[in-house]
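Batch job 17 of 40 flagged for manual review because the log was empty.
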Amino acid sequence: MSARSTRSEHPHLELRVVLLCIASGSLDAVTVLALGEAFASVMTGNIVFLGVAAGTADGSLAVSSVAALSGYVLGGLVGSWWTHRSPSRDTDPVWSPRVTRTLALELILLVGIATAWLLSAGSPGRGFGIALLAIAASAMGMQGSAVRAIKVSVSTTYLTGALTGVVEAIATRSPFSTTHRNGAYGLAALLTGAAAGGLAVHYLRPIALVLPAVAVAAVVILSVLDHRRHRAASGEHRSQASAGAAGKSHSVFPA
């Protein structure tokens, strides 16, 4: 499937990817600033933090890093199982309903931690904060596993490769491909989300975790609308094919 046909058949695809990157960036900003100084989605950073904690005997950083890593792995396991648990009968080969269902599970976790954060007025305490960090990382693990099932070259939780690709294209003066463009959009969205998350922690702390939930909710809604459009189009194509077959049958066996 060409990039042009993918965009025409999935008009909200790039917007959904951007919204997921915004969710990742804003959630990471909140967890780093207010939930244990660990990332919800960037596991490479958390592995480094865990190594630093081991080298400096920093028990607090070790607990945060392990909580985030454990939560992400658990979320990735559940998300992968949920996304691939049944043979695919999807009519949409790019963004299947199974991906949307996994993102809906992620949304439930995000709404839960946003509610808990709001009820604690943005100050959940160390123990409860670590639990929220682990759940946030689980949500990102689900998102990462869901996005891997999308039949396009994209990521929303780890973008170092996207940055490398964009830099390479600039250095070699290569034409910007769809992958490069999506990578640039993702990087900009991640930065925007992180900035918004940081501002929310400082100025709107009790509702700082609302943005990730709203962004993922928008993705789920757009995806459901896209699936409905696809089903309608598939039904129309089947009807046309059946009518064509019936016409051929009548022409072979005239009344």
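Reviewer: the log was empty due to a logging misconfiguration, but the result itself is present. Residues 106 and 139 are 5 Å apart (CA to CA). Unflagging and moving on to job 18.
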